[in-house]
Amino acid sequence: MTRNLAAQTSPLAAEKGSRRFATLTFERDVAAPASTLWEAWTAPAARAVWAAPSPSVTVEFLEADTRVGGREVSLCKVDGTPDIRCECGWLELQPGTRSVNYEVISSEGITKSAALVTADIAGTGERSRLVVTVQLSSLAEDMEAGYRQGFGAGLDNLAGVAERTMVLERVIKAPRSVVWGAWMNPETLPQWWGPDGFSCRTKRIDLRTGGEWVFDMIAPDGTVYPNHHLYHEVRPEERFGYSLLWGENGPKHADAWVSFEDMEGATKVTLGMALSTAAEYQQAMDMGAVELGYQTLDKLERFIVSR
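Above: the chain sequence. Below: its structure as tokens.
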């Protein structure tokens, strides 16, 4: 998570090159299941949605690999100031309950801080609690104030994203290469995409990083729903992330991601979708978005089995 490093170097700290240590604790109660909060906390596409601590900050992700031993590298950009580089390395991942990572902040080749970040998630039903502990070592300057501000704002964003995110999972009895091939193939994707009774009419399709899919969803009663998917990242047989627009170049209504995990010859598919606003999330839930999403995954499974 990139920090908003607002703290200024005190003359004494700069003169002595002092090291400063702090243990910071952040707690958030979230109106979302623990499994959804975990997905929002760890999925690279979701982290890209909530990472910027304020609208004036742009976060560019250079690497994102949420696995033990993997790392995330991002640049925090603010007009008129040097870029801030954040490197996060994942040390422990207990799905749904705990993560541990290191974090190193630098700018213009100077390491500003190093930290050990532990996140604990617990919850029952539709509510969960996140406790993040940051063991901070400030190297070039006193970073505590910046961490409090940056982490606090980021976790506020995270809570908001988790509360408007739905997560669907399905284990399909087929190898990951087969499931990926049925999804990320311009010939086969339109054949099964959408809830029961819906069909697709494709205008353009390019399922690569930076690519797009412009298409109409046609309901059983003939109603046409224009769609535009923009693909931000595609990692073959692992995951992809994309944005959903209302019609070609229309307003964005969601950020989504799909991951594929080997399960002893089967494949676990996880589809996450963060709606752009709480109102859009509620409208989607009222329309049965979860049920319709599972119908879509059912169609994928039937398509694979029938081949």
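The CA atoms of residues 60 and 75 lie 5 Å apart.
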